[in-house]
Each structure stands twice: as structure tokens, then as C-alpha cells.
Design goal:
Distance between the termini: 47 Å
Order of helices and strands: EHEHHEHEHHEHHHHHHH
Strand content: 5-15%
Number of domains: 1
Number of helices: 13
Low-confidence stretches: 1-5
Length: 275
């Protein structure tokens, strides 16, 4: 079945560690939507250098009844997923701007409608999360990596000709009902209040935040702990299912590092800080 004008691909762009997995799972909980996770991870399927449990569906593994039917060698992964899931809205949280631009070129030859969400998060929270994942990287490198990604994303957003919207992770966390309803209006679908209970839905995403995916397993009373690592176990082991604002940076990022971030990010600081 070819894609038609009723099918939409919504890209979630921004910096890594900005909450795109949470947002994608929420949107993918709508009755007409499917959250694929980071679609560019299909390239890992045939790569022996990645552990099996890390490169397939976060919940089902290699035998997932969605992803096991996808051929990563074919160009239009979205058409495949539409045919498999029968969902009219597909959510891709790949933040790699080159990937998004390549997909937009492919989609030009279809009747699909591409939309773009720019998910912003306080840069101190993002950099602190990056430091937790990459403890051997210097603060300067983390800041520079963030600046490069955000600059590319801003260019993508400014040049994007379709429907687009910016939201803050912090606002989504503090006011989920209003933000989810606003995003449903953006996607031109009916708001379904139960979307915020994403952990009760059938999800099949690849890539993305390990801790958030662990909550899905936890909600299903599974004993599988492979998703948790020493780096994130302390936070997610007893994390509630409900949407909760993560501001660990306020206690983990010292004042000197916060000052360095402020000085090195210049005008971007005010644009990407949450007050």
C-alpha cells in the first residue's frame, strides 16, 4: 500500500538527552499513531558490533512483530511501517539532522506530509545528562557538541517548509495535559487524555532513552533488568510511572560548571534555559 496524503511523518528534533523518547512514547500512544523511536537505528540491525538487546525493539527484541518485518535495505522505512502498523501518523525521534534531511528528500517523491517538532530542554540539564553518560569527555567538548547539534537543528527548523512547532521538555513535564492537547491540535488529531499513560500502551521503539523504556517493562511487571545500568539505576528503579520533571542538573552540576556553560554558549543560553 503506497503512502497517501493522509499519512504524516512527524520528526522530533533537538539535542540528545532532551526528552524525545518520552515525547515520542506519549504521541505514539494515540490510537492513530506509531512511535518508531530513532529510525536511523535500523542500520544497526545487521551490525555485529552492537549487542542484540540494544539494537532491536526495546521491548520485544529481535522477534518484534513490527520491526522483524522491516527491511533496513529499503529506502522508505516509513512506508514499510505504515503498511505494517496501519497507523496514519508515524513519529521519528532521530535527532541526526543529516538523517532527517535525507528522509525529507525521499519523502518528496511521495504524498506524505512531513511535520517537525523542535523539542528544547534547558541546556544545563542536557549537558549534565551528557556528562553522566560520557564521564571521560571534558566539559568543553560537551558544550561544543551541544552547540553544534543545536545550531544544525535551528537551521533545519528555519528552513523547514512544512508544519512545525517548538516546545520545552520542562513545560511538557509540568503541564502535560495542555501540551499534549496542543500537540494533538498541531498533528490535527483528537486529543486522547490517556496518552500521558504511555506506559500502558503497546510500544515498539528502537533506540532512545534506556531509563524511560525501563518504565515500560516495569509497568508490565517484568523482571527484565537489562535496560538499567549503574549510571541510571539509582534514578529509574523507583521512578513513578507518571510524567515527572527531571532536574537532576540542579544538584549534580556545580556552580563553576554552570558559569562556564553560561559564558561559552553566549546568546544560546537564554534561548535554551528554562526559567
Amino acid at each position: 500500500m503506497p503512502l497517501d496524503k493522509r499519512i504524516k511523518i512527524c520528526f522530533i528534533s533537538g539535542a540528545a538527552h532532551s526528552g524525545s523518547t518520552l515525547l515520542g512514547l506519549i504521541l505514539g500512544s494515540h490510537s492513530t499513531a506509531f512511535f518508531m523511536g530513532e529510525a536511523n537505528k535500523v542500520s544497526y540491525f545487521s551490525d555485529p558490533n552492537f549487542e542484540a538487546e540494544r539494537k532491536y525493539c526495546r521491548l520485544c527484541g529481535k522477534e518484534c512483530n513490527i520491526w522483524s518485518k522491516v527491511d533496513p535495505e529499503k529506502d522508505n522505512i516509513y512506508e514499510q511501517l505504515h503498511n505494517i502498523t496501519k497507523k496514519s501518523i508515524l513519529i521519528d525521534s532521530t535527532k541526526n539532522v543529516d538523517w532527517i534531511n535525507r528522509q525529507l528528500e525521499i519523502l518528496k517523491n511521495t504524498k506524505i506530509e512531513a511535520q517537525l517538532i523542535f523539542l528544547k530542554r534547558d541546556l544545563r540539564a542536557v549537558i549534565n545528562s551528557m556528562a553522566r553518560k560520557y564521564p571521560n569527555r571534558t566539559l568543553d567538548r560537551l558544550i561544543n557538541d551541544w552547540i553544534i547539534q543545536i545550531t544544525k537543528t535551528k537551521t533545519l527548523y528555519n528552513l523547514f517548509q512544512g508544519k512545525k512547532i517548538k516546545i520545552f521538555y520542562e513545560d511538557l513535564s509540568l503541564n502535560p495535559d495542555q501540551n499534549i492537547e496542543d500537540l494533538c491540535n498541531f498533528l490535527e488529531i483528537t486529543y486522547e487524555p490517556e496518552m500521558k499513560e504511555y506506559y500502558n500502551k503497546d510500544q515498539h521503539s528502537i533506540g532512545g532513552n534506556i531509563g524511560t523504556h525501563y518504565l515500560l517493562i516495569k509497568a508490565k511487571n517484568s523482571n527484565d533488568d537489562w535496560l538499567l545500568t549503574e549510571r541510571n539505576e539509582y534514578y529509574y528503579r523507583d521512578h513513578p510511572f507518571s510524567i515527572q520533571l527531571d532536574e537532576r542538573w540542579k544538584s549534580e552540576l556545580n556552580s563553576q560548571d554552570q558559569e562556564i556553560i553560561l559564558l561559552k554558549t553566549g546568546s544560546l543560553f537564554n534561548e535554551f534555559s528554562w526559567n
